[in-house]
Amino acid sequence: MKKKVLSLILSTVMVAGLLVGCGGGSNGEGGNLAYNGTLELMHYSTSEESQGNGGSDGFRTMIAEWKEANPNITLEENVLANADYKTQIATLAAANDLPDVFLLQGMNTAAWAEQGLVLDMTDIIKDSPYYDDYNQSYFVPFTANEKIYALPALTGGTCTVVMYDKRIWGDTFPATWADVEAKAATLDVTPIAFGNGGQWQANSCFLSTLGDRYHGPEWFMSIVNKGGAKFTDAEFVAALAETQRLFNETDLFNEDFNTITNEDAREYYIDGSAAAFIGGNWDVSYVQATLAETNKDLYDNTGFAVLPQSADAKKQRNSQNIGLGYGIAINPKVAEDADKLAAAIDLAYKLTGPDFSNFVAANYALGGLTAASDVDWSKFDQWTIDFYNWSYVDTETCEIYDSYVSSAVWGVLNTNMQTMMNGDMTPEEVAKLTQEAYEANY
Predict the structure, then answer these.
(1) What is the pTM of this model?
(2) Which end of the chain is more exposed for a tag (fewer CB within 10 A), N or C?
(3) DSSP letter string over 227-268?
(4) CA 221 to chain CA centroid, nearest Å
(5) Host H or E run for residue 300
(6) DSSP 8-state symbol, 371
(7) pLDDT in tens, 279-293
């Protein structure tokens, strides 16, 4: 496994070349900005979230370095918890009162661009000193009408990973849901922990990967590009039906899955009351840090798997969803002051450039928008190496639903899917309402 990681990294470095940049300032060099005023930045990388979360830790570290390198600029941060951030940023957008620089969620790109709420950053991105080292595929959620409206930020990590206790499941997690159900019937603990209390988790951390097994990538990109696919299509309805079956008709998940968050659910795995947990890469970072201190045996026996295959799914894929769901966007009003705009651009470069990628690679074995270099991979333990290989080498990837389309669509799906998972709404009803929201809002 180590050889596979190292060969991949070495090939990346050979292609990318030596990346530079430290501190803030113009293009990351420090001290060359003419602006002397206040710059607003709104994000969700709280100090609490940064504990064990590589993306948030790296984000906060880059902010601190940029502030130190630019003492003439007052960076006014508004930092909210993730769920609160989503609510507040939507409220500010509705009032045309967005901060100078903020995290744009991919699913809001098209609508906010059409409303003139986000600056066209196409030329800014192409003029970046790091442009040749950007992973171009990450720009897709932030592109509308062939223009790019954000620099993809934070880490490129999975939203759907099964963490499992090898002492219970064996070295390999069951490949099919039928085998999972058979094994679960013999357990005296909750088979799989999951939290959908925020409503988005079932979408981001379950359905977008499960759905890929039913419809494949072509169907979803047709949804994104308005190519004729519909949420009422049989394959998507089948994915909803399987989701309902698994959560409502089996005993695989904790009974409170719809009322607790993913943060709550992962504690079930940590304390041993659940034999597996489904969440995202941020959960893996937290569980890793916690188990390293509290339960070395479980730490050494945690494995990673993709979602099992469903019996009626036609697409046989070893897939998990991965991408950069947020990007650094700039309020168009900032462009009224050339010096202020230059400072905002410089901050965006800093938060998404090689300094960030090198930090998260060296400390967490995670990837960002820019290729990393000069990372000592030998210092990582087997957990980190295994998860890196699982995330970037050994699995196929699919899209994260709510990185695209519109929050107005996903809000309808997420709310009604929660009801459906409780058994109080049919998959067909959920699909119909989602399609109606899609036609009305996208």
Answers:
(1) 0.74
(2) N
(3) SS--TTSHHHHHHHHHHHHHHHSSS-B-TTTTTS-HHHHHHH
(4) 18
(5) helix 296-300
(6) P
(7) 998 899 899 999 999
